[in-house]
Each structure stands twice: as C-alpha cells, then as structure tokens.
Amino acid sequence: MKIIYNTSKMEMFRLFRNQYFVVFSLLMPFIFYAIYTTTVSGTMEIAGTEWKAYFLISMTCFSLMGSSVTTMGIQLLYDRRQPWMKWVQSLPMKRMQYFTARLVSLMVLNGMIIIALFTAASVWKGIELPLMKWVQVGGWIWLGILPFLALGLWISVFKTPDTATGVANLLTLGMALLGGLWTPMDNMPAFVQSFGTWTPGYLYANGAWSLLAGEAVPLVTIVVLLAYLVIFAGGALYTHARRI
Amino acid sequence: MVMLSVEHLAKDFGRKRVLHDVTFSLEKGESVLLLGANGAGKTTLLDILMGNIKATNGHIDWYEGKKKIGLVLQDASVIDRVTVKELIQWTRSLYTSPLSYQEVIQNAGLVEMEKTKTDNLSIGQKRKLHFSLALVGQPDLLIMDEPTAGMDVHARKNVYRQIEKLKKAGMTILMTTHVLQEASLIGDRVLFLENGVIKTDETVSGLESTTTWIRFRLENENAASFLQQQGFTWNSDVKLWEKETRSSDEWIRWLVENNVPFQDLSTEKKSMENFYEEWTSEEAMG
Questions:
Q1: Which of A125, A129, B90, B243 qualifies as a FRET site for B122, CA 20 to 30 Å off?
Q2: Is B78 at the interface with chain A, CB within 8 A?
Q3: CB of B79 less than 8 A from some CB of A
Q4: Are B231 and B95 in the same domain?
Q5: B69–chain A Cβ distance below 8 A for any pair
Q6: Which residues of B touch A14 (CB under 8 A)?
C-alpha cells in the first residue's frame, strides 16, 4: 500500500504539471460551460432539471472522459516509450502496483476536477441542490468513468503517439457528440438517437442526469456500462499481454 | 563466492533466436564486462537478468536468494515533471533500507538543485542523478548498460572513479561497453557475446598478461619457411615476423636454439583493444 500511495502521489504531481491535462480537463470544459450557459438561458427546463445544472453534468462528464481516454492514454503511451520506464521496471515494485498507482492518481484528480467544476459552477450560476444530490451525482460521475479509463489504457498500446492522439481525440469527441453531451439527445435526429443512447458517453452522462432529476440510475445503463468496462479492460489487458 | 549462475539461457523473439546457449556465473564483488557487437544480444541478456523479460529456455540461479539490483542505463533518462527532491524521495520510498536523502543528493552533486524539475537538468546532471538513483537501494549487483556512451573524457573519468569506489566497497558489477579501455580499467573479467553465444569468458589480467606478440626481423629469408611451419607469420603492416603466444620466453629460447637469424626482437602484450578487434573481425567474417 505504501508503494501505491507514494507512487500515486508522485504521479498526481506529474499529471497536474501536464499542461494538456490542465487545459483539456479543467479549462476547456469550464469555458464551454460558461459559453453554453450564457448563450442559452440557464433556467431553461430540460429532463426534469435546469439547463445550467444539466449542462454542468455534460461538461463534467466530458472533462473526465478527456482526462481518462486522451490524457491518460497518451501519457501512458508516452511514458512507455521513455528509456526511464526500463529503470522503473528495475525498481522493487510490481508492474501491477505501478499501474494501480497511476489509475489511483487519475481517480483522485478526477475527484478534484468534479469538486472544482461543481463548486465553480454552483457558486457562479447559483445552482442549488441538496448536498446528498451533489454527492450522488458526483459519485456516479467519479465511478462511472472506469470504462473510459480502461479505454485509455487500451489506447496506450498504440505504437505511435501521433496515431494514439488522433484516435483518442476522435473517440472522446465522438462519444461526447453522439452521447448528447453537447446537444441533448432529444434534439438529435432519430437515427442518431437510435444508436446514440447505447454509446458509452450517453450512458455515462445519463446516469448522472437521472440522479439530478431525482430518479434512480436505469438498470440497463449500469449493465451496458459494465459491459463496456469488460470489453475495454479485456481488450487493453489482452493487447498489453501480447505486446510484452 | 558465486552470486548467480546463468545456465544454457536462450531467448527467441518470434522466430528469431537472439540468445542461443548462454552460460556463465558472477562471483560476488567482481566486475564483469559484457562485450559484443550491436545486436549480439547484450541488452536482451541484461533484460532477462533484470527480470524484465523471460528466457525461452535455461535458468538463472541466485545463490542466497535474489539480490537487490541497481540499473544504470545508457540514456540516463529520468522521470519528467518531478523535482529532483521528489524523484529521490519517491525512489527511496520503494526500498526497505535506502541510502539517506542527503547521501543520494550529494552523490548526484545536486544539493543546490533539489527543487529543480528534472526536465530542466542538463544531460550531465541527469546522468549523475540517474547514477545516484541506481545506488539508492544499496544494490548487491549493479547492472550498467553502456553507462559512458556519448560521454566526454572528463565525464567518463568521473564514472570510472565512482565505479572504482563501488568496486572497493565490494559491489558486484556487470557492465556492457564499447570502450575497450574500460575493460582494462574497471573490468576483472570479460564476457564476449557473439551472435547470442558467450565466445570468451576470461579474466582481463589473464588475457592481457599471458598473451604476447613476439616480433622480429630476419637477416636473411632462408629461415622463412621453417618459421612458417612453426606458426610464425609475416605481418606486412609492420614488416616484421610475428607470433602470438602465451609462452614468449620459450619461443625466444627456441629461436636462439635453432639459430634463427633474427634481429630487432621485441615483445608486446596484447591489449583488450587487440582482442576485441580480433573477436569482432572473426565475427564479421562469419
């Protein structure tokens, strides 16, 4: 545990000093939130709640998807190609401990992003929710990111960072767009809705939107997200095992 | 006392066999140089010893349990986006009895730069930090993969001094290098790896002190064929007759007893450089 704790701490410093992480996971979602809640009335009703709260969920999910798929995936790939990774492998630390520590560091930073975005948006836009609801919604977003973390791990097996960056950005943006994070799913064309509601981006945000509206997370959302987790984690582990 | 022995190690990458049948042992406290041309399998062998990759066949026996290993890499790269202090402290936290923080940062010569991010260190500073980090866990075996590659003479001498100190402290060292003088300076024993097979496993002193060239000129060429029958050869580069031998005194006596009309006789001990040139030229000829 001490090894995982110390390694997570160091990796958190490294992640936080990664400008890509700060820009894409903190600044960009907040700027988009500011733009979309200024140009559209924040009090507009949508899915049993107000737009300013609904879109906060969208942007928080987008932020975490970006940090997990793009930042984490590319960072792992970049690090794997560094000569010092061989030195790390020579240290008295198991490979599994090292990767666990890296996932823990990202999960901690994801938690901090959720708190930062929720606090900033609620203070600025005056979103009033019971504390328990903030915890429920935040907790779902924090835990529901696991399939995307697994996808980031899968991305990290690419041979070149350029390809991985392209694929990661395409996937993150694609999942956000088709998942209704930018435009609510009800406003999308019918054929997009037919498959969009099955995409991981939508299922992830939909769990949080449901909790925000005072409803339980639909069972199908949990089951399908878990299936994505199994597929992405399985793919990542299988591909990593073949590469070693 | 034997620290580890490697028995019939083989490694395949796909259909390509990189190591064939590698067998050697390491004595505690000795400094062994692993030589060989690029692609000979040196790094693969080190990777197997480090436990980074598994051998296809063969095994490694660690006497008295697997020892603590320190690793020095050719690139001397260190983890980025951390300060010198953070990196040292993190490395220390992984070991049960690490060197003190002060010892590590002093070894690295970076006392004044502990808050500097590793990205901002010069290559020389990174090398020093990398070397110091390899010693944090007080390893029993230090593996170095071409630690002086790309260094200037001054930096190289610094590394030699550090290695000399470690040798005096009784550390076992296994090191790959392309700088042959290093074999004479810091090596006790030489392993020459050729196409995945250990071709030579001899002590440096044994190699250098026992093998000598006898060279001389002939007053007339009447004895030439007689000399050739005894294994003497004409070296057209230096225009001298020569013979490589481990018993030069006996051969000089033989020349005198057989009235060979020689003059300007000299002997020259073979250096590591000579051995390496010979090994690699034989390898190139296939």
A1: B90
A2: yes
A3: yes
A4: no
A5: yes
A6: 79-82
| pLDDT recorded at residue B119 | 92
Residues B135 and B46 in one domain: yes
Q: Kindly state whether residues B183 and B244 are assigned to the same domain.
A: no
Q: Which amino acid is at A135?
A: V
Where in the sequence is the domain holding B246, given as residue range(s)? 212-269
Same domain, B21 and B113: yes
CB within 8 Å: B86 and A13: yes
Same domain, B147 and B62: yes
pTM over 0.90: no
Distance from CA of B72 to the nearest CA of A (A): 8
Q: Do B69 and A90 touch (CB under 8 A)?
A: yes
Task: Write out chain A residues lying below 8 Å of B81, CB-based.
Answer: 13-14, 17-18
Q: What is the pLDDT of residues A201-214, one digit of tens each?
A: 999 999 999 998 88
To the nearest whole number, what is the mean pLDDT of chain B?
84
Of B50, B69, B90, the CB nearest to A10: B90
